[in-house]
Specification:
By secondary structure, this protein is an alpha+beta fold. About 40% of the residues lie in helices and about 25% in strands. The chain contains 22 helices and 31 strands. Strands 18, 19, 20, 21, 22, 23 and 24 form a seven-stranded antiparallel β-sheet that branches. A six-stranded antiparallel β-sheet has the order 3-2-1-6-5-4. The two termini are about 35 Å apart.
Length: about 850
């Protein structure tokens, strides 16, 4: 097999070199799509491709290193073939256009292909490349016929196939985005859990007041809480040439005081190298003291040295009964606890002197990487809390708020941060009044920063707060939620105007902007027609036509297809000479994200802020993603409109065909003397036409079971002569046609011989689903109020044979000719009745 990156001399039918290009194959690997189960989104696309191009075969083909694999397929039995059988591989060589081969037997690239020379003897091929935004072609959306097509595809079919290929890429991007989101959420949850455990551990160390054993226990308990894979933990303190077990937890709880030599042990290796160590599998690890593996139930472990300068104090170890229980992230998190242990052990060693000089508290306070503050509430004469005053803050507080900590002690929060939200006073007041700690995640709007932390009561009217800034995480979450919301909204909307308005609102709220909108470009980026936009309260709309040159030198970036980013209209060289026009429409900073089509900018996604603002790379990537999704959504609407036109044309032609069939039959059978038989034939054709009308209501994708029944039976008698009982179901076109003919024959017999032949007779039509090894649909026809039912003499006519064939030709028909009338039960597998959506 050819290795990645190798290019060999090829025969005319060989695959092109790009098929084994490392960069392309890596791009395909990044989507993690190969060998995944079928998905409705992809299956629907190949079904549409078949209908659009009028072919029996359509495939979503992905070209891997040694095979072509089909994510979705219609009319092709295998889910993959080797590369020598791949026609789609040739589509990789022309990423910007369709590959159309009218006759595969005469094209030098395919005439020796096994699928052409042998089964299934394919003859025509057309493939739209699946090209990523980075220019990598992963495969193609292709359609195949078993006869040559000299004319290839019509222009409309080519355009539609390209749009459907773009939908395949959209599905791939959506799958990857969801997977990345889930991975990120899991990582964030793990990080949050570890951070909370570390924060609680640091508080427990403070509360231990320098006592050694409580500090060691807090370290081990906190580390195990942060790393759930651990079922045992221990703090091994260095004692001469050995390590002694302290603060044992879980599976090693019975080994308090155990001494392990430095030489020949894993903890000893960690201590002597002064490096964290990840033990993957204790049974194979070279540093394990193997006589301890069984008794300590040791399968895998993570270890981190506790250092004080160059001096080793001990080792924190977490272990699991299972091998491969830990990873590098667990090791990094344990290292954080080892760092906290360093501070705790250092303070424990010097606690007597630290308490005398207040070094202990001040040192720990100042060394915290989290922000820490002590506040005191301010009350009005009635005792109501109206503000709070800073008593003390640590250096990290200033770094996290961007405020000099030396300027805040003695001042109130309303003085330090004008316009601060009332919730910051109300919730900390509740902590003081109730004595109950709280956790919070909240924004300081004036600083445009988010914080997460805990507040707890101290003595009297004082409280403490320990916190971290989480702006990046919160804003990233908001952008991810916005993208998911946008995807949901775009799927449900049916006009481009609705899509752009929905996208503008979602973007504006997610970014905290003051205006967002979408505009169509006129000429060579000369003007923009802004559609109805979203604005924050108090900000006017700018919907309408605007000339770019009226606002500064801002056209060049958009002409090149680059984002126009201005962080301050008064200082940016493109607008600073005359910022007035921008300021007159409440623009202090802006981003214009271009939407491109065939190499030119055709539209722009607009975001404004009334204030100067630094637009981050993550925000710009978010806007690029939104613009791309809106572009894909608009393409979907256009594709659906085209499909609707095609469906109507097909329906019109089919109905004309049925009319012609009926006309031909009328003319042909004019001389037939048995008019009853002629009438029966015409009524059957009419029943098919009625079924066709019901199917048309759902574009020939399905029909409602009850609607088919009512449409056909209303030809025979008033519907109040029928009682319907059963759940409405979507049924396939084939099942609708079969049901129409069956009900027509039953109703015809009832009119002639059964309950409908009398004025008071009724028919009950009931249906149900039964679940077992093979779920089935059961249809009951019960006549009452008419003459006794008699079995047909002899073999019966065509109508009797049709009734005995049952639903969709299953022949599962049970007929009872009773004194009260005909009773019939018909059964068919539910999979043959219902529309298949996957």
């Amino acid at each position: 097999m050819q290795k990645r990156g190798e290019t060999a001399l090829m025969e005319p039918h060989s695959i092109p070199p790009i098929a084994v290009d490392d960069e392309r194959l890596q791009a395909l690997d990044d989507y993690a799509i190969l060998d995944t189960p079928a998905e409705p989104g992809f299956d629907g696309i190949v079904q549409l491709a078949c209908q659009l191009c009028d072919v029996p075969v359509a495939l979503v083909s992905l070209i891997a290193e040694d095979r072509q694999w089909f994510k979705a397929r219609v009319g092709f039995p295998r889910c993959e073939t080797d590369l020598n059988s791949s026609v789609c591989a040739h589509a990789l060589a022309q990423p910007d256009e369709l590959l159309i081969i009218p006759d595969l037997t005469v094209d030098t690239r395919t005439q020796a292909n096994p699928l052409v020379t042998g089964e299934p003897h394919i003859r025509f091929y057309a493939g739209a490349p699946l090209r990523t935004s980075a220019g990598m072609v992963l495969g193609s959306l292709c359609v195949i016929d078993k006869v040559p097509r000299p004319g290839g595809l019509t222009q409309a079919q080519q355009s539609g196939l390209k749009l459907l290929a773009e939908q395949v890429l959209s599905q791939l991007e959506l799958r990857r985005a969801v997977a990345q989101r889930d991975t990120l959420r899991a990582t964030e949850a793990q990080t949050y859990r570890a951070r909370e455990a570390l924060r609680e551990t640091q508080m427990a160390i403070v509360a231990a007041e320098g006592e050694l054993q409580p500090i060691l226990r807090a370290i081990v308990v906190g580390a195990m809480r942060a790393i759930p894979a651990a079922d045992g933990g221990v703090f091994e303190l260095l004692d001469g040439d050995a390590l002694t077990y302290h603060a044992v937890q879980g599976t090693v709880e019975g080994y308090q005081g155990l001494r392990v030599p430095l030489a020949g042990s894993t903890a000893g290796h960690c201590a002597t190298t002064r490096q964290p160590y990840l033990m993957i599998d204790a049974s194979r690890d070279p540093h394990v003291k193997h006589e301890l593996v069984a008794c300590l139930q040791l399968g895998s472990a993570v270890l981190a040295p506790v250092l004080q300068g160059n001096h080793v104090l001990g080792v924190v170890k977490l272990q699991s009964r299972q091998p491969f229980a830990f990873d590098q992230i667990d090791l990094e998190q344990l290292t954080l606890f080892a760092g906290a242990a360093t501070a705790g052990l250092t303070e424990a060693e010097a606690r007597a002197d630290a308490r005398a000089k207040d070094v202990y508290w001040r040192g720990l306070f100042d060394r915290l990487s989290e922000g820490f503050q002590i506040g005191e509430v301010v009350r009005d004469p009635g005792g109501r809390i109206t503000d709070w005053r800073y008593v003390e803050v640590n250096p990290a507080w200033g770094e996290l708020l961007g405020i000099d900590p030396s300027t805040v002690v003695g001042r109130t929060v309303r003085e330090v941060i004008p316009g601060v939200e009332d919730e910051w006073i109300v919730e900390f007041g509740k902590v003081v009044n109730s004595g109950q700690p709280i956790a919070f995640t909240r924004q300081v709007g004036a600083l445009r920063r988010w914080y997460e932390g805990r507040a707890f009561k101290l003595d009297g009217d004082r409280f403490g707060v320990i916190f971290l800034e989480v702006t990046a995480r919160v804003e990233a979450d908001a952008r991810r939620v916005a993208l998911l919301t946008l995807g949901d909204r775009l799927r449900d909307l049916t006009t481009t105007g609705e899509m752009t308005q929905a996208a503008a609102e979602i973007v504006g709220l997610a970014l905290g902007a003051t205006r967002a909108g979408f505009g169509r470009i006129a000429g060579d980026v000369e003007a923009i027609e802004v559609e109805p936009d979203w604005t924050a309260p108090g900000i006017p709309s700018i919907a309408g036509l605007h000339q770019f040159d009226n606002y500064g030198d801002i056209r060049a970036h958009l002409q090149r297809g680059e984002a126009l980013v201005i962080e301050d209209v008064t200082t940016d060289p493109r607008t600073r000479d005359n910022p007035g026009p921008m300021q007159s429409i409440d623009v202090g900073s802006l981003v214009n994200m271009p939407v491109r089509e065939r190499g030119r900018t055709v539209a722009v996604f607009i975001v404004h802020d009334v204030q100067a603002r630094i637009w981050t790379a993550e925000e710009l990537a978010f806007l690029r993603n939104v613009a791309d999704r809106v572009e894909v959504g608009v393409a979907r609407v256009r594709a659906e409109e085209l499909q609707g036109v095609l469906n109507k044309e097909l329906a019109h032609r089919l109905k004309n065909t049925l009319s012609i069939v009926q006309s031909i039959a009328t003319q042909t059978l004019r001389g037939v003397s048995e008019r009853e038989l002629v009438g029966a034939f015409e009524r059957r054709v009419l029943a098919l036409s009625r079924a066709h009308d019901v199917l048309m209501q759902k574009s020939w994708t399905a029909a409602k079971l009850k609607a088919v029944m009512e449409s056909v039976l209303s030809l025979q008698a008033d519907l109040d002569r029928f009682a319907f009982d059963g759940p409405d179901l979507d049924i396939s076109p084939q099942a609708a046609l079969s049901l129409s003919l069956l009900l027509h024959e039953l109703a015809t017999n009832a009119l002639k011989y059964g309950s409908l032949s009398t004025a008071t007779g009724l028919v009950r039509v009931a249906w149900r689903t039964e679940h077992g090894n093979a779920p089935s649909l059961v249809l009951d026809w019960t006549e009452s109020g008419g003459p006794a039912a008699l079995a047909p003499a002899g073999r019966g006519g065509f109508g009797s044979k049709l009734i005995k064939m049952g639903l969709v030709g299953t022949r599962a028909a049970n007929l009872h000719y009773d004194l009260t009338g005909l009773r019939a039960e018909f059964r068919a597998p539910l999979t043959d009745i219902q529309i298949h959506l996957h």
